[in-house]
Amino acid sequence: MAPSFGELVASKTLDGHTGWIWDVTLSSNGQLLASVSNDMMIRLWNANTGLQRGAAKDNGHSHWVRAVRFSPTGRFLATASDDMTIRISDVNTGFTYRMLQGHTGKVRAVEFSPDGRTVASASDDFSVRLWNASSGSLLKTFNGHSGWVRAVAFSPDGKTLASTSDDNTIRLWDTSTGSELYQLSGHEASIRAVCFSPNGKLLVSGSQDKDLRIWDTTSGAMLDVLRGHSGPIRTIVFSTDGNQVASAADDLTIRVWAVPLGFACIRVLTGYSGWVRAITLTSDEKMVVYTSDDMTIKIWDSA
Predict the structure, then answer these.
(1) How far is CA 148 from CA 36, 109, 122, 129, in A?
(2) By CB neighbour count within 10 A (0-12 exposed, 13-18 middle, 19+ buried), where does 220 fall?
(3) What is the pLDDT of residue 108?
(4) What's the distance, CA 233 to chain centroid?
(5) 160-165: strand order across its sheet
(6) pLDDT score for 1
(7) SS3 for 89-154, per residue?
(8) pLDDT given at position 97
(9) Mean pLDDT of successive 10-residue stretches along the chain, which has 303 residues
(10) Is 0.85 topped by the overall pTM?
(11) Distance of CA 299 to the CA centre of its chain
């Protein structure tokens, strides 16, 4: 099937940061957008109007803030920084509720577990750490990567954690025992993006080698390699029904792959500029894309 090309249409520009924007995340109810930057500030935005919600919060980080995630209930934000800490703050007050310390390198990624009880972090110290979100105590340290750890993702049931690294591998960890389940090899460069399917059976990874790879989470087997991007892959997201995967790359395209059609590329979206920081993709192929350039967030809608 030949892919149908489409355009993304710029709908809003969110202006306020005074440094490069590293990450953007959407709350589970779709109402709030959070962004973090070199300016060490967290900014909250109304996702529908694009207006900033209150003043930006300085949550105490002393260096660039690399990653931000909402808790499943939307009450808390977890932020990861080059200052080697993760902070959990209250969305409504901005108050830093817990500071998680222990990493000995920059923290590049942070994720809440599906139940919101634990937080996973990925660091340049080659480790992945699991923390109690309520108390801030360290639960487990996963060692095995031989390069900076770039991304982490929980399976939908929270029992498995995936991590990706500059060592060109993905590792799957058992969150209850801390043991390594599988080491997934095949990518030829650093892996920057990873995502579980909604049913947890598949894992999709995206690399600086420009390829996506599909993995079976039960066996660790590689099922497919998806080629088409001409630049490093930055972001991957599944649709809520699990039938589509969208991938964004530095070639300034977003590709939509149809899972029931053997991951055939069914759409290529263009028209935006800047690195894609987040994508929301619904089952009817409607898409909202958040990009970052010139210290602004631009919101694009699929035409």
Answers:
(1) 21, 11, 8, 13
(2) middle
(3) 95
(4) 12
(5) 149-154, 160-165, 169-174, 180-185
(6) 65
(7) EECCCCCEEEEEECCCCCEEEEEECCCCCEEEEEECCCCEEEEECCCCCEEEEECCCCCCEEEEEE
(8) 87
(9) 85 92 92 91 91 75 92 95 94 89 96 98 96 96 95 98 96 96 96 97 97 97 97 96 96 96 95 91 82 91 85
(10) yes
(11) 17
At a CB cut-off of 8 Å and minimum separation 6, what does 67 contact? Answer: 22, 23, 36, 79, 80, 107, 108, 109, 110
- The pair of structure tokens assigned to 118 is 């634990």
Cα gap 286→271, rounded to integer Å: 16
Q: Where are the domains of the chain?
A: 18-237
pLDDT at 95: 83
C-alpha dist (Å) from residue 3 to 190, 257, 265, 268? 27, 9, 6, 6
What does R_g of the chain's alpha carbons equal in angstroms? 18
CATH architecture of the domain with residue range 18-237: 7 Propeller (2.130)
Q: What's residue 55's pLDDT?
A: 62
